[in-house]
């Protein structure tokens, strides 16, 4: 027995070392799969060797016997399960993904362009589906492994669970991309898309106010921009579109289907996309196959990877300067509205030319794909398709910009600028979600919303500080006004609200099953205001998990704090 225990201890420690080495190599393979496929392949081969050695070390009669022992059973099962999981990942799940990226890079480098790469991606659909299923099976296996108090086992198990979770997301995303990207980029025939550039210096539900727009076609991966314009071009359009009684009750007073600047007050992106598509069709007679929206921060990330462009005046458009040019500098340089609109269209054209050039460049494409992944993670790129099957698949990801209807805890903060200026460039938001005690009618929740206006009190252009709302109270340049909406869990109800510690009145509405609690907040320059909401949320299955978060992408990201749950008896 002593010899057997010693054998298990020694081989277990050796297996742990091999597992940790395999995990390090797997992480390298995951991180470099797009930017450096050769490095990814090398790391994957090394990970497979370490995983095989770990599996061999944890095989044999002693390990099978140890599984059934009361003291050694859990650590032994965890080590053996982790070795099996690492071996499956390196043998069955990741090789198709690494091989595909290398093949795509080869197609582009050999002159086949994006069209050839899309065909290759489509042909890999079955392999990627299998890889996604395998990784999901491995995730289920690792999550079911016993948690142990033996630290050498515990840390390897916990790290493997986190790593497999990241890999499962990556392989599932790759499988979805193989089904969506080829048809959406014209592999089955030309597609036409309407692109909106959102100005986050003036907040709207989906991010920023719709500004410039473009129309492009995709035909077997070849992108051709047909038109660039601004909202003033569409001001006379009156599309006939119905979005339902609930939408009308929440937003109808602002006439979002006919006023371009108000078309995306709702955070549910398909609403804005349908309005924009109908507006363009009414204006031009053209039907589009989908709608895309992005903001200057996203554009900066993409240009940082694609490389600089050259504006008509000879100045450089780069990933470092595009956000500042669009959201701040343009208002300082151009007091005339027409000149400013012309400049912003020049920015849009230059960015489009630079990005489309990078798509067919094997040297720049890997970095561009990595940047696109970061933009998607920040939820600064939204896509909507007119094809129901494609839209259903898109709605499984945050890129769809949907307001989810899931049951369970939910927390979303959305602000719409009500002043008519461009002061949200200086806005900071913070959200704290604190669950409280349980009662017979549900769990109490306290939501603390902190809003800070960091705009200077002087020195900003008049266009930035203008007050289109014409308030009936005195204001100063730099003062802002926001419609602040909190989206609560389905079935929640408000029990009280305070603004800066004083009782406040909140307007109640509903959107896609979520109670919407809205307050009109004046936010003076260089000030901070705190809105506190007290709610009761229903107790249901999953109600003790952290809330699903709705993050509105503005200039400055919003930090969110979710406090621990007290135990309910």
Structural class of the helix and strand makeup? Answer: alpha+beta
Number of strands: 18
Q: Cα-atom Rg, whole angstroms?
A: 27 Å
Q: How is the main sheet built?
A: 6 strands, mixed
How far apart, in Å, are the first and last alpha carbons? 45 Å
Describe this structure in words.
With 569 residues, the chain is an alpha+beta fold. β5 and β6 form a beta hairpin. The chain is globular. About 1% of the residues have low confidence.
Record the SSE blueprint.
Blueprint lengths: L1 H31 L4 H21 L3 H6 L6 H37 L3 H11 L1 H20 L6 H34 L6 E14 L2 E13 L2 E8 L15 H7 L17 H16 L5 E5 L1 H11 L2 E2 L5 E2 L4 H12 L3 H23 L5 H13 L3 E5 L2 H7 L15 E8 L9 E13 L2 E12 L8 H4 L14 E8 L5 E7 L2 E2 L3 E5 L2 E10 L3 E11 L10 E4 L8 E3 L7
Quick synopsis:
Helix content is 44%, strand content 23%.
Name its key features:
alpha+beta, 6-stranded mixed beta sheet
